Every structure is written in C-alpha cells, then in structure tokens.
Amino acid sequence: MKNIQYLLKMRYLRFMAASIVGGFALAVLSSGCAQQAWTNVNVEIIDPIGNRRAAAISTEGVPFLSYIDIYGGGSGNLSVAKFQNDSWTHVGPRGFVRTESRFFFTVDSSGAPYLLGAKRATEYENTIEMMKFEEGQWIRIGPPIMTERVEFLSMAFDSTGVPYLAYEIAHPDRTVTVDVVKLKIDTWVPAGATVFLNNMDFYSLAVSSSGILYLTYVDYSNQKKLSVIKFENGTWAPVGLRNFTPEGIEDAPLTFDLNGVPYVAYRSNRGRLSVMKFQAGAWVYVGRREFVSTVPMLPAIMVSSARIPYVAFLSESRPHWKFKMMKFDGDSWVSVGPEEFSSKNTK
Q1: Residue 184: which domain range?
Q2: Is the pLDDT of residue 212 over 80?
C-alpha cells in the first residue's frame, strides 16, 4: 500500500480544484462561456509554484479564480477574484480566510462562488468547512465536519442545487477511504457508502442529473490507470472497464452532458491531455488522444448545453502561469478564451 508520505507528495504535486495542492476545478455550467467576449485578459494573478489555486466560470461566462494571495492585503491567505469589465476584482475582502491544508473552489448553477476547505484541528484531525459568497459577504454553509486527516477534497451539486462533498482520509493505520456527504436541512448526512482505497487514489466527485454519484480514481497496483465508479442500488460499481486508460494518469475531473453522458479529462504521466466519454458501454476518445502535449496542469472539463466539450488547464511559463481553454468542434480541439492568467494586478 502507498505510504502516507508518498500520498502527501502526490497531493502536493497536484497543484491547483483546485489546488495544485488542493485542486484546479473549472466549472462551466452552461453554454454561456461560448458567448463571453474574452479581451485583454493578460492580467496578473499569482505565480509562485506551490501556491494553491482554483478556477471556475459562471453560467454567464464570468471567470473566477481563488488563490493563496501573497501580494497586497492577502498576507498569504486565500483570496477570490473574478474577471469582469476587462479587469480582475476581488470577491469580498482579500485574504478573507486562512487555508492551512486543502481547499476546493467552484460555482453553482446560479454563479454563486463556493469554497470548501480543510484545516488542521489536531495532529490527526481536520475540520472541513464550506463557505458561500452571498449578499456581498462570505458566509459559512452547514456545520463544520470533524474528521481524520484530509488528503483531498471535491465538491459537486445535484440538479436541485444540493451540495455534495467528497473527502479522502488518510487514517493512522495507513488505510485510505473516501466519504461522501450531502447537505440536508443544515446537516451533513451520508450519501453513498464509504469507499475503501487499497493502494488507490481518489480524484474527483460528480453528480449526474438523475442524482447518481460518480467518483474517479487511480490504482497504483495497475500503473495508476484510471477507473470510474458510480453509486447505484446501494453499492459502488464500475462504469465500463476498470483501469481503462492505456497509461498511468494524473488528475481526472468528470462531468456530464445534458443527456447524462459522462466525460472525463486526464493528464497522462507523460504530461499529455486527453478527453474520453462513456458511450455504448465503453470509454472512447473525444477527438485525438493526447491532443495537448505542453504538460497541462490540473485539467478541467465541462460540456455546454449545445453538447460541446470544453477543457481548461494551466501550463507553466515562468515567471507566469498560462491559462488555456479549448473546445471540441466536432473534428478537433481548438483554442478559445483567454491565453494567459498570471499574477498581482487585482483590485
């Protein structure tokens, strides 16, 4: 079984979900991004390696970015900014919350930003809290969750807007599990059975329009190849073949089109980006396999209401991080949106 030090190292390298230690999660929730006029987006947002970030795009096509803010009033704490009217402005005060461990950022179908964070409570315990930006301020949603040491977080919404959380726990006995909960009348309740990861690693949570939970994970005993499972009829079952990618992978966000077809983006161990969908009982490539070869960091994926797949990712181009978005036009993946996000100049 993978030891805890190795697990922590892999989590650190996972950079941005939102974090590249927390996960880069891009949530484009409708076709609105296709109409967004992207102009003059070469602004500065943060560049030192090791800072955690998370991006999202609202239904109106407004990009959001959360990051560890080392400039201005950030004091090394978490800030959230959005790009509107050709400039970045902060959502709430800069450095509004400390982030000591892991975090995950996204937006819901109304465009409201959510932040999920885990902070250290004791040597072996973390507290998980969720916040939402509403009526001009960040407010806490639901009670805190006390748990053992959290290694990764993910968050998704069902079709009615109910938030679901998934968190991977590294137990003192070196076992690893994933728990999924949902918010019900201001209380977190279990949603799906605990997943036991024997030499495996969890990557992302998604909820289909019919309310079925999906998780992506990799198996270290099978070269870190990708598998997808879903919770249905009281049990977790594979979606297609287990370990279906031809090589080991890093990062595997999953989403659905309006017909409920699952799509997954992944970065191979060689640093190449691919997208697959589940069709006729099998996972098949959308366009060419490994269509991006510039070492994309934390790919993100969405499918618009017109059933057009989009991906976004960061690539390192010192002293800045470049942001790139692409869509599948039916024949090939083509660039859309801004070509760069980097640091500092937010209001």
Answers
A1: 4-252
A2: yes
